[in-house]
Design a protein that fits this description.
228 residues, alpha/beta, Rossmann fold, eight-stranded mixed beta sheet, 5 helices, 12 strands
Amino acid sequence: MFVYVDLEHHRLQQQPDLWEKSLARRLKHKYRLEELSGDLCLIVRYDKVKPDLLRELNARVVLVSGCFTDFEHYSEESLAGLRAVYREAAQPILGLCAGHQLLAEAYGAEIGPLGPLSPGEPDPYHDTSWPGMKQEHGFMPVTLRQQAHPLFDHLAQRPIFFQAHYWEVKAPPPGFRVLAQSDLCRVQAIAHTDRPLFGVQFHPEEYDQAHPDGQRILENFLRMVNAK
């Protein structure tokens, strides 16, 4: 069984349109993961997940979603179980966007905003949730590091993935190496050198027919998991 951790905060219910959009995306991702893996995928809320629950479910893989809500609204108590899952690393884990950031933070990395736009700088994303901030939004290329990694097998040097973030991992934590970067965000993908821990700043789960590279990432990850 796969466990897909829903990292979205309940306060998003105050914005019904975004809340419904978030729920629809999680369901789409669940079906996609089941189709790609041939396995069941269970969605679990971030404040319910913990190592004991994963053992009880006999979970073999964990994916952690992104979120619309800023981390300042999350209590440390509500994230304690997820942080424990990251640190125990009993199952292969792939963190997506905010899930990637929390993974890096669990191992000592600094995370934070990309920063505000300069005075007078045009804001191409003024109609998003984070106006006035540097961000990456939409299908955009990332650049792979020279050292090949199985997570990026069968992809070009500059694959294209869906982005939706204004925070980043400032530098990889000890024990991790950077696999990809972009002009604005230096840490687009990380992998632990010894443990089955992976994080990507982009959203590979948001692929489509015109932009299939995200699907390839998920297929590569599943192949790596099944090979163990």
